[in-house]
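Practice record 12: protein with adenosine-5'-triphosphate.
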Amino acid sequence: PYVQAFEVIEKPNISYDDIGGLEQQIQELREAIELPLKNPHIFKILGIEPPKGVLLYGPPGCGKTLLAKAIAHETNATFIRLVASELAQKFIGEGARIVREVFELARKKAPSIILIDEIDAIAARRIDVGTSGEREIHRTLTQLLAEMDGFNPLDNVKIIATTNRLDILDPAILRPGRFDKIIEIPLPNTRGRYEILKIHTRKMPLAEDVDLVKIAQITEGATGADLKAICVEAALKALRENRFIVSMEDFNYAIKKVIKNRYRPYAQIL
Ligand code: ATP
């Protein structure tokens, strides 16, 4: 079957309200991407150049993709998503061509945001580029850098890349005019966890005893994706018992289920 190497989402259905915590990061991303796309003249007046690319790094499941989608939604930009690990594994020999096509499409459909997920798959520092597979991955990266160098910072194409491994990246991608803005997306703190729980229980009928503050306090170390899974598991538990209201007991069950078998500081207290 034909597998598409990248995905175009005309208008992602995610807004800033769907993101818990990360206020500072949203602010920085808006300045780096939304402002120059919407008001390029401001940058001209001030005589400064916005970043062409932004790199989001941090543990998996904490909202990197979500943030990129929200920015695309808010700017009405065409959103093109490319998963770098797939370029390296599924589309062997085609990486450079795919990168070229993605940038062509982005320019044609501008304003556009290109999201490159797991960029470390093509941009890890390499000691030797000996094997043909390595050389091919290197060609893909070279094409990406050439595309980025080839356009103007005020063209309305922006690139967001994500990674869990900032430490292994080739410094070439961090040079000025490339990914020159780096934003950390960390694990949520207690308040962040509370905000995320609020979002994922927005449409849920909660019993009066459900205490989201308490849940946030006892889930230290949980990612946004974990917290979402906890909410879903709690609701499924209620459903299984033919209840249409979700109780604190359901949440306690779900917390244990989702975080079971994982080393987390709170594992002992549950
Ligand atoms: P990965 O590195 O695995 O791609 P990521 O950081 O991009 O992870 P997302 O794909 O954005 O994580 O998050 C996975 C899911 O977890 C989201 O679709 C969302 O439902 C939930 N989630 C994660 N972080 C948050 C958050 N800050 N607020 C609300 N929901 C979140």
